[in-house]
Amino acid sequence: MLKPLRLKKHEDRRLHAGHTWVFSNEVDTKATPLEQFEPGEPCLLEEANGKPLGTGYVNPHTLICARLVSRDPAYQLDQSLLTHRLKIALSLRERLFDRPYYRLAFGDSDLLPGLVVDRYGDDLVAQFTTAGMERERPAVIAALEKVLKPRSILLRNDTSMRALEQLPSYVEAALGAPPEWVALEENGCRFEAPLALGQKTGWFYDHRLNRARLAPYVKGRRVLDVFSYIGGWGVQAAVAGADAVLCVDSSALALEGVVRNAAHNGVSARVMTREGDAFEVLKALRDEREKFDVVVLDPPALIKRRKDTKAGTEAYRRLNQMAMQLLTKDGILVSCSCSYHLERDTLLELLLKTSRHLDRSLQIVEEGHQGPDHPVHPAIPETAYLKAFFSRVLPN
């Protein structure tokens, strides 16, 4: 029998409205002390009057102290439920994509709180971000084996989010021998991504549709891809007919990936790389009087926590200003943000103010967000995090 975790009066409203998180100040700690739970221990969530809300798991050491797993008290997080939820997630991806390259599981949005899984054909990369999912590691691996029969599973449990859950950081194979570089396909292009040493889970599937949107803007143009990683934007721009592409990243490994991926797609002659800090390289390019028809800015999250908002917003402003200064008179700026704490309207206002500061006019010609293999949970705003504005920057 599961231990109960009882909420205070009226604190069940968010759960009834569709949310799945319980904060520590919402718990009736006199009736059900948090200290009685081990990190990740399953629980029965209850209303103040003892009526069951469903099952979940607890971490007594975190602000989000519990997560709802099932609204039916008869089910809890185990291999059977994990298998069922993964099958449901897989059915959506197989409907959307004709090739097995996508994010298979996107945490709360797929009713798999604390679990991220990316698929690269027969190779999987999984990440556990909560104590509850870490506790069920054997069940997760068994469920993935049953649903997909993969060749390998790599655990990239080195995300900073694990520190909030007081979990150790590690990277290790859970099944088979994961390749050092794994093959994938996106928008008709072939890529290789570094699994154990790459960023996050190796590739950023969330921008798939935004990268496809880039194609009409780049034919015969000169393109700058800042924070290029392994060339997701830049290589696809070259394949779409860009005359020249410069990929900028601070990581030598990432730029090795650009070179690899340009070769895979037969565009090596039109894709160059430049290693260095983005701000420093942008300044140097301006000093060198370089100009580009299209600039893509796809930085990592510059605002990871709410307290970083002021400094992070200023960093986004500086980046976009420096990018606009490198554009030709009728240039296209693709400005992205994966920072949840930078709101969509804030980024739009930032772009407008920056263009006016430079005495340029701005047209928003397209707007993108995360792809459908990163579905949004409508009750959890944090699951809608990706922004992408395609802007035309014109003289006054």
Task: Please explain how this structure is put together.
- It is a single chain.
- By secondary structure, the protein is an alpha/beta fold.
- It has 3 domains: 3-70, Roll (Archaeosine Trna-guanine Transglycosylase, Chain: A, domain 4), CATH 2.30.130.10; 79-179, Transcription Regulator spoIIAA (2-Layer Sandwich), CATH 3.30.750; 192-395, Vaccinia Virus protein VP39 (Rossmann fold, 3-Layer(aba) Sandwich).
- 29% of the residues lie in helices and 30% in strands.
- The strands form 4 sheets. A 7-stranded mixed β-sheet has the order 15-14-13-16-17-19-18, sandwiched between helices.
- A hairpin with an 8-residue loop joins strand 6 and strand 7.
- Helix 11 crosses helix 12.
- The termini are far apart.
- The mean pLDDT is 97.
Biggest β-sheet: strands ordered side by side in the sheet: 15-14-13-16-17-19-18
The mean pLDDT is: 97
Count of distinct strands: 19
Low-pLDDT stretches are none
For CATH, the homologous superfamily of the largest domain is named as Vaccinia Virus protein VP39
Task: Quickly give the CATH architecture of the largest domain.
Answer: 3-Layer(aba) Sandwich
Helix percentage range: 25-40%
CATH class of the largest domain equals Alpha Beta
Task: Explain briefly what this protein structure is.
The protein has 396 residues and is α/β, with parallel strands linked by helices. It has 3 domains: 68 residues, PUA domain (Archaeosine Trna-guanine Transglycosylase, Chain: A, domain 4), CATH 2.30.130.10; 101 residues, RNA methyltransferase domain (HRMD) like (Transcription Regulator spoIIAA), CATH 3.30.750.80; 204 residues, Vaccinia Virus protein VP39 (Rossmann fold, 3-Layer(aba) Sandwich), CATH 3.40.50.
